[in-house]
Structure formats: C-alpha cells, structure tokens
C-alpha cells in the first residue's frame, strides 16, 4: 500500500490498495480520506456508481461538519484505480469487490482507529454495498448503511428485464466482452459545467457518453439484482434515499434537472423492503439521480434527511451499539 496527497488537494490522502491480479493483470483500488482536525471514532465510507469516481468534495465537507472522518473508495478499474491495461469499470462478479471493501474497512477500523463505520453507496455502489453488507452481517463490519439512489433493477420494459436478461446471461458465457449497450450522454451532460451543468469532473474517468456496457458486466449486475429480489438480511439500520420522480431523457430541461433520468424510483422504493430488518425510505422532491449533486433546495434536503437519520440510528461509539 502506498499513500500520497490526493488530486483533491492537501486535505485529502489517497492510499493505493494492491489487490489480487485478474485476467487483465495487476489490479488496484484507491482509498481517499479526509480527517477532521478534532479527531473522531466515527467514519463514513463512500462508494460511487458506474462510470463514476469520487470527486464530490462538498460531500466530504458535509460529513466532516457532522463530525465524521470521510473516506471514499474508487473501486478497481474506476477513476483513480483505472490502469492503462484495464477495461474500464469491468467485472464479472460483484463479489470480487469484497476484497477492496474488506481492506478499506480494515484500514478504517484497525489502522485508523475508528469504531463506528457508516457505508454510503450511490447507484451501482448502492447495489454493491448492499450485497456486501448482507455477506458481512454477522461480523459487525457495517454499523449503518445509507443508499443514494441505489440501482436495484433495470430501468427497462418488462421483456428487456426478463427475456433480455436471459439472453445476456447466455451471451456472457461465451462472449463476456461483447458490447450489449451504452448509457448515453444525457445524464453526464446535465451534470458537467461545460455542457450546462454545475459540476467539474475528470472526463477520462467519467466520460459524458459513458463506457460500453459489456455482457459479462451486465450479467454480474443482473445476478446482483436477482439476489436482492430474493431478499437480503442486512442486520444494521439502512436508509434508502431516492427522488420522488423519474423522467425520460427526452423530457424538458427543467424536468431532467429535478428528476432521476437514470433509474426508475418505483423500483428503488419497492425493492428497499427486501434489504433487511430496519429500513427507512426518504423521497427527495426535486432530486436527480445522484442526490448529492441535485440543485437546491433538493440537495440540502437530502443532507438534512441523511443527518437526521444518522442522528437517530448511528451510534456515537462501539460501546453504544
């Protein structure tokens, strides 16, 4: 493991985690951290979505102001962790991410001395962290799970979610790197400052047009969706946040900028009940897909809901669990 100042500046440290090689060669993940000066035993670990990486410094600011040390994990083949020989964002089993998630949790708890860990997952990261929290439900790794527009099902018609999934599953057996779709650039363009949005991010790591959707990757996602649909048994408290509305990418700009144009929020609400024993659902009026990037006042409402919930369900220390 190596560490250095992160691209976000001197308040952030980036640690490169060396992982087991895969069929493409060397693999790394990157754990970014920002500590509060007063010290705290509570930490939050953020996990991004597909075609994404951690760039939202204001997200770290919010958690720091709430008294948490902030960590973000750029998963293998994403953002800071993408190596020249790798297929961007590609994986064939979501369980492979357990390696970097386990190591990040170990560092946060054992090396950095935190005894309370909140995990915050966005979109695909919400699916990944939900499945991981379920697998780690007996060892106390996660004290609370917060999901920002988690990806719980395909935002496609019924036949594509059923017959289409079966076709992809078989195709991935023989041609896992076969391209089966694209995301389109509408959501990315609505975010980036050069195309009318309010945010700046690295377009090599988060291109407006996205990365190709490959059969092996989509099969891994659909298997994760199926596992969730059968029901998980997450033992820690869970907060699920989603917009009050979804919209088409062809909607007027004012609708695109106040709705989730990536996922069907009805799927999020319906499948939230299958996460575990204590689940809270918060709907954010005017929220976009990444609620933390929503325009005001939706963004402030999202953070208000998160920290109100955290105040009720996140322990101050391990002794108060």
From TrEMBL:
Keywords: Hydrolase. Residues 43-244 form the Serine aminopeptidase S33 domain. GO terms for molecular function: hydrolase activity. Gene3D superfamilies: alpha/beta hydrolase (3.40.50.1820). It comes from the Bacteria. The keyword Hydrolase applies. Transmembrane segments: none annotated. This is Alpha/beta hydrolase.
């Amino acid at each position: 493991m190596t560490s250095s100042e992160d691209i976000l500046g001197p308040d952030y440290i980036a640690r490169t985690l060396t992982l087991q090689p895969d069929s493409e060669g060397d693999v790394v993940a990157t754990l970014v951290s920002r500590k509060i000066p007063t010290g705290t035993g509570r930490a939050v670990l953020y996990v991004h979505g597909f075609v994404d990486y951690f760039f939202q410094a204001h997200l770290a600011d919010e958690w720091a102001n709430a008294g948490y040390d902030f960590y973000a994990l750029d998963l293998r083949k994403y953002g800071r962790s993408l190596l020249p020989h790798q297929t961007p964002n590609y994986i064939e089993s979501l369980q492979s991410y357990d390696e970097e998630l386990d190591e990040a949790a170990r560092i946060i708890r054992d090396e950095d001395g935190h005894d309370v860990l909140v995990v915050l997952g966005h979109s695909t990261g919400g699916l990944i962290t939900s499945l991981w929290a379920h697998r780690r439900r007996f060892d106390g790794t996660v004290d609370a799970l917060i999901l920002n527009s988690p990806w719980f099902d395909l935002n496609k018609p019924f036949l594509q979610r059923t017959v289409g999934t079966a076709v992809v599953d078989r195709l991935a057996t023989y041609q896992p790197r076969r391209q089966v779709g694209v995301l389109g650039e509408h959501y990315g363009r609505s975010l980036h400052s050069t195309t009318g949005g309010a945010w700046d991010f690295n377009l090599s790591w988060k291109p407006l047009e996205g990365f190709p959707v490959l059969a092996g990757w989509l099969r891994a996602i659909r298997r994760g969706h199926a596992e969730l649909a059968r029901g998980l048994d997450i033992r820690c408290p869970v907060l699920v946040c989603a917009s009050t509305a979804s919209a088409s990418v062809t909607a007027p700009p004012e609708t695109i900028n106040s709705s989730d144009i990536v996922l069907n929020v009805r799927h999020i609400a319906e499948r939230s009940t299958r996460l575990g024993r204590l689940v809270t659902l918060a709907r954010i009026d005017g929220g976009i897909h990444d609620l933390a990037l929503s325009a005001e006042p939706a963004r402030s409402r999202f953070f208000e809901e998160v920290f109100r919930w955290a105040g009720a369900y996140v322990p101050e220390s391990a002794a108060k669990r």
